[in-house]
User: Fold this.
Amino acid sequence: MAKTLKTSENYTIKAGAGYNAGSGTHTISLDSRYVTITGDLTVEGTSTTLDTTTLNIEDPIIRLAKNNTNTTDVDSGILIERGVDNNAAFYWNEGDGVFKAVTTTSDGTGTSITDTGLANIRVAEPLNSSDAATRNYVDSQLVGGGFSIGFRGDDSSVVSVLSGNSVLIAGDANISTAATEEDTVNVTLHNDLTNITSITSDSSNGNLTLIANGTGEIVINDVLTFSNAASTPTATTITKLYNKTAAGGGTGLYFINSNISSGTEGELISKKKATALAIALG
Assistant:
């Protein structure tokens, strides 16, 4: 027989010795196959435990960390108990400002998750530019996929470029590059370079070579300065120009060529020295 208890006021059930102070120490049990609450349910305790095998929630949005006032960092997310293994969690890390999938020794109490390692996330192949990329997608783009990599001038990280890829250097549309081998990148300049204050070879004792196109010439429009005195280089069939302490020529500017004076270095003669020599020789 169904029974109904009605009251026109609030109805309170208390259990335990401390019921007068609102802190009962005993348990109130509802022993029934089904329990239906037609109104809102408010649980004011510090812990809620559901021993169910199936949990159905009608709400489309689940709100976590409801009372977070943002005065301290609070991690929030889902923690999965894994028995003897470290637990797993997918959560918002407030300190890093990112979502993280991790393994953890945390048990769900407190307000932070302690990471023991990152966990893999398996996703579908990306369809939109903002989708997370799979490893397969990235590999397919890197290997002959026409993938472009942008370099920042102040970026200290090293980016590997595979064969067949293009390298885009931000800041100048007149620089194009093409990788022919895994460790070789050819750079082609299509316009004048400006605001360059220094060019240095990074090879120990290596040459720095300037080559004009075809019958063109290397043109210097301003003062050419030799900043350091050089030692006499080895003579070859190519004329080498260098500076040393001035001697009889009065210039300190020397040249050497194995086809001239049997490779003995010579000093260019100044106008003053040349005039004096001409007068002396009549």
